Amino acid sequence: MIRISTFIFGMFLSLLAFSEQPQLDCKNMPEGSVTDLPSIASGFAEVKCMGGLHFITFKKGLQWLTPDGENFVEFYARPGFNAASDEAMFYTKIKVREVKGGEVIAKWSVPKKRLKDSNKPDKLVEIQAITNRGNKITINFFDNNWANYCNPICHPLYTFRLINDDRSLIKW
């Protein structure tokens, strides 16, 4: 219970710091900003700028939801957890790769702590994104329709579900 309270408090502080960041002009994105993802990830993720914020989010027709199914998950460019920036934040580099074999099992070991009854994945698609301030995030999308987020560490609380708008599982 203390862990969850600490996580929620940390997210609240992060949102407060983030809410005071300078905003982007989404119609005139800064030079060097990423506007799309490599094709390997474009089936379930996209990069958007909306409301002055640059973020990685779910593709139309899909949803990324917290394990309880109550909240959407998106990844805004920001300087770091619980940090503020005096400049507008945006992603400058995104690498995507497909992973198979032992590395999948090693990466699955983190969300598995929270999802004890889930099927073991066979592969994953990893997105690594870097902001204009050098902050790096990693998002691991497992082929069992679960994902987790790392910034800079991976934690079982940072796990979310990939589903279609009708709440069915996506097809890999």
Termini separation:
35 Å
Low-pLDDT residue spans: 5-18
Give me the oligomer status.
single chain
**Can you tell me the overall shape?**
globular
| Number of E-state strands | 9
How many domains? The number is 1
Radius of gyration: 16 Å
Please summarize the sheet with the most strands: 6 strands, antiparallel
Record the strand order, biggest sheet.
3-9-8-7-6-5
Can you offer a commentary on this structure?
- This protein is α+β, with helices and mostly antiparallel strands.
- It has one domain (2-164).
- It has 2 helices and 9 strands; from the N terminus they run αβββββαββββ.
- It has helices spanning 2-19, 102-112, and strands at 45-50, 53-58, 62-65, 75-76, 91-100, 123-131, 136-142, 146-150, 154-164.
- A hairpin with a 4-residue loop joins strand 6 and strand 7.
- The longest helix is centred in the N-terminal third of the chain and has 18 residues, at 2-19.
- It is globular, with a radius of gyration of 16 Å.
- The termini are far apart.
- The relative contact order is 0.17.
- The model is unreliable at 5-18 (pLDDT under 50).
